[in-house]
Amino acid sequence: MLKVENITTIFKTGQNTVTAVDDVSFDVPENSTIGLVGESGSGKSVTALSILQLLSSNGKTTSGKVLWKDEDLLSSSEKSFQSIRGKEIGLIFQNPLAALNPVFTIGNQLVETLQLHNPKLSKLNALEKAEHLLTEVNIPDAKKRLNDYPHQFSLGMCQRIMIAITIAMNPKLLIADEPTASLDVTIQAQILHLLNELKIKNKMSILLISHDLGVIAQHCDHVLIMYLGKIVESGTPLDIFKSPQHPYTQALIDSIPNPDPSIKKEPTLLKGDIPSPLNIPTGCRFHTRCPKAFDTCEISEPPFQNHLKNSKTSKVACHLFENKPK
Amino acid sequence: MFGYFLKRLFSSIPLLIGITFISFILINLAPGSPLNEWADPSLSIEDTQKIKTNLGLNDPVVVQYGRWLKNALKGDLGRSYSYSKPVTAMLKERMPATLLLSISSLILILGITLPLGLISGAKKDSFFDNFVLIFSFIGLSIPTFWLGLMLILGFSLKLNILPTSGFIDPQLSEASLWIQLIDISKHLALPLLTIVIGGLASLTRYHRFGIIKILSQDYILAAKARGISKTKLLFIHAFKNASIPIITILGLSLPGLIGGSFIIEYIFSWPGMGQLGIASIFSRDYPVIMGSIVFSSILIILGNLFADIAYTYADPRIRLK
Amino acid sequence: MKKFKPLSLLSLIFLAGLVFLAIFLPLLSNTDPNTFNPDLIGDALAPSLTNWFGTDDLGRDLFIRTFSGARISILVAVVSVSISISIGLILGLISGFSSKAVDSILMRFVDLMMAIPTIFLILTIQVILTPSIWNVMIVIGLTSWMGVTRIVRAEVLSIREQLFITAAKARGISNTKLLFKHILPHTLPPVIVAATLGMGSAILTESVLSFLGLGVQPPDASWGNMLDNSLGYMRESPWMAIVPGTFITLTVLALNILGDDCRAKFNPKES
Q: How is domain C6-22+51-270 classified at the architecture level of CATH?
């Protein structure tokens, strides 16, 4: 349904050019949940903004295609884009309070979106529908609360409202950019559960972006691991957790703390910090921190290929696997 | 809401008393007595002393202030030394001209600032934006009284299309209301233009900055992600957010605007309170000076009060606390 | 640090040139700015090669007088801003550091001073005192410290709450040392901005006062009293009004541009 093909997005800051997303490709099939994992600065949010072309004015997607139902969004006009944003592809944000306009009631913001993509809808019907949407995302006393302002809700409730506004037009794809990162752990689970419910009910797909591999593993059909603007490994959650290939993925999995004190494991500690995106290392961009790096890694960039015998879904970009037969 | 309004109104009373107290003390601590200027020079020293005692001018300043305040609370601001008319009556006479000038300039300033700042902020760094920025910088730097002089030079002395000063041509006192109104607007044009150019600059800069800040917020991005058009985003979503700080800034800039329009009234001989105030300063007409200070302070306090209320009303985050 | 914008550089050059000419031109020139030419009384000359800015009604050269007036403006700006910054810094630090009671009394006083139309107060005081350049500076200084007080107080309050201050306290650093070494330097950038912008408004206030005859007294030149002097000759000799006003505008404009650029530098988020 959504096909992202080799997109590259750059930002200009002063005289510097930062490549935030570098030649990234992936598919989001119908009725599926795709997880995009990476640390901060890995380019996962920029990938989301590139799909909808909501980059800040100094950012630009310089190459590649974003195919939505076989139409390239990157070459479509701003006008036709507006009808796709919100109506067919929805976006929810990390900080729900900041994503709601503080000076309008939530009823107002819901009705605006409903009427925007359906101009014939009367105000009264729109309000009714808004109330229904709020009930659907489990906001108690929905009718009364339509007249409330964003700051009168808890953060968790704000995220539910944001979800309600976003699913108002029944989008076929929901991009959720760290939807639970600013919430308490117990609320996180509720929100993720809600998203999953809505996905089945509304027959939509979800692109779930998170830095938390644990969150991704439970809810996704397919996982993409991103490092410094590139996808370094992809596969089903089973592939990723049972046989992680890329040393970076291994380190990520190792870093998930286990609450059981009887299990003691030595985590693989990575050297140093994430390099600045202004100064991306040559060759494999992970070699500066990789515990298994060797000479080739510094010189050439590894191709992104399938290497695993028992899985057709897994792909990895690492020189360690290059000489092994398929 | 009404309760809040009353509370704010009452809390501004000590402020008003403070302002008048400070002004009164400053004026009356000055060496020399106003009587020396206004009394008949042929009076003997004893007679002068007698008049002084009768007027209470020999009492300590604080006592004099107490007496002034007591009368002021009853609505009596004393009598002018130079015109021997009640100060309140003189102020009342001058009020319509001042209100006409200040209200029309306020409306014009807001009417121009809001769209100008909005477009300028939305098209940040464009040619238009740079033009607005430079224009507002000049507006901030130009002395308003000189701007007034230059406008007189251009429009009255060189082009000869607008009158240099005054409120209405005295020859038109018999003319129809319509012709009188046209003549008043002709007289109003230059002082109005001067005040508007002076007041526009800082407000436009604030508004532009507010718009730029708001356009970078997540909720604007979120609204865009919902497919809301750029025009709607700007004129509905960003506009309401950015108008809130403008209300406050407007309230804060009132002292400057009122102080500035005093000088403008003086230059254009606009028969308002400002002209009266400045004339009374020159003639050391203390009761009129105090009256003008009281009146302009009340205007400023009321303006701030309305700004506060409008602000509270416009920003739900404050309203509902 | 960003480089200076071209406009700021231009402003800096203008101000430097102004200061230079204000100091040296009246010293080097053999024309006294205040002596009038008896042959030319009542007949102001338009700008020409001999008198670049023309002459005034008393035949005095306006070029010399403009820079002699610049001395006054610069002096007023520097002295009155020094006064207002000193008061503002001290009261702001006290307000930010002392108990709630002291703080709220001080802040009410600031509110009160801000609600008075200052120009009115200044005019009144100037009429009462004998008008002189020194009174102008003191009066402007004493009526324009409120903004600085607010800025410094807000800065102290926000810094006081920050973790690095708590950390310094945890290391056992004394309050006085904390104030002078850790807090005061942080309040300086906004104070520098306020000082630059304050100089502009001091020049404007001085020009209003002198224009109304309440500031610098003739025959000494100031941009304000040159404008006052031009009033009777506007139709025939407009340059007498245009020259000093243009200099006021350009000087204040240069100060505003510099102040704004400083603010953008100190506060990259706001630019």
A: Orthogonal Bundle (1.10)
pLDDT of residue B266 exceeding 80, the answer is yes
CB contact under 8 A, A86 and B227: yes
Residue C254's pLDDT band (boundaries 50, 70, 90)?
Answer: very high
ipTM entry: 0.84
Q: What is the pLDDT of residue A79?
A: 81
For A2-220, CATH gives 3.40.50.300
pLDDT in tens, C190-242: 888 889 989 999 999 999 888 888 888 888 888 988 888 888 888 887 888 88
DSSP per-residue string spanning B37-73: HHS-TTS-HHHHHHHHHHHTTTS-HHHHHHHHHHHHH
B284 in C contact zone (CB under 8 Å): yes
Contacts of B203 (CB under 8 A, 6+ apart): B109, B110, B113, B117, B246, B249, B250, B253
B279 touches chain C (CB under 8 A): no
Smallest CA–CA distance from B217 into chain A, residue: A98
Give the 3-state secondary structure of residue C218. Answer: coil
Q: What is the pTM of this model?
A: 0.79
Q: What does the mean pLDDT of chain B come to?
A: 83
User: Is C253 in Cβ contact with B278 (below 8 Å)?
Assistant: no
Averaged pLDDT, A53-80 = 87
pLDDT confidence of residue C44: 67
Beta carbons within 8 Å of A274's beta carbon, 6+ residues apart: A39, A41, A42, A228, A289
3-class SS letters over chain A: CEEEEEEEEEEEECCEEEEEEEEEEEEECCCCEEEEECCCCCCHHHHHHHHHCCCCCCEEEEEEEEEECCEEHHHCCHHHHHHHECCCEEEECCCCCCCCCCCCCHHHHHHHHHHHCCCCCCHHHHHHHHHHHHHHCCCCCHHHHCCCCHHHCCHHHHHHHHHHHHHCCCCCEEEEECCCCCCCHHHHHHHHHHHHHHHHHHCCEEEEEECCHHHHHHHCCEEEEEECCEEEEEECHHHHHHCCCCHHHHHHHHCCCCCCCCCCCCCCCCCCCCCCCCCCCCCCCCCCCCCCCCHHHHHCCCCCECCCCCCCCCEECCHHHCCCCC
Mean pLDDT of chain C: 82
pLDDT bracket for residue C2 (50, 70, 90):
very low
Under an 8 A CB cutoff, do B27 and C112 touch? Answer: no
Domain ranges for chain A, please list them: 2-220, 227-321
A127-167 pLDDT, tens digit per residue, is 999 999 999 898 999 889 999 999 899 999 999 999 999 99
CA distance B171 to chain C (A): 24
Higher pLDDT, B81 or C259: C259
- Rounded to whole angstroms, the Cα distance separating C203 from A138 reads 63
Chain C: partners with 3+ C-beta pairs within 8 Å: B
Q: Does C257 contact B at CB distance below 8 Å?
A: yes
Q: Residue C102 CA to chain centroid, in angstroms?
A: 30
CB contact under 8 A, A99 and B221: yes
Instruction: Report the residue of B124, B221, B226 to disrupt the A interface, i.e. the one with the largest count of A CBs within 10 Å.
Output: B226
Residues A175-207 have pLDDT tens digits of: 999 988 888 888 888 899 999 999 999 999 999
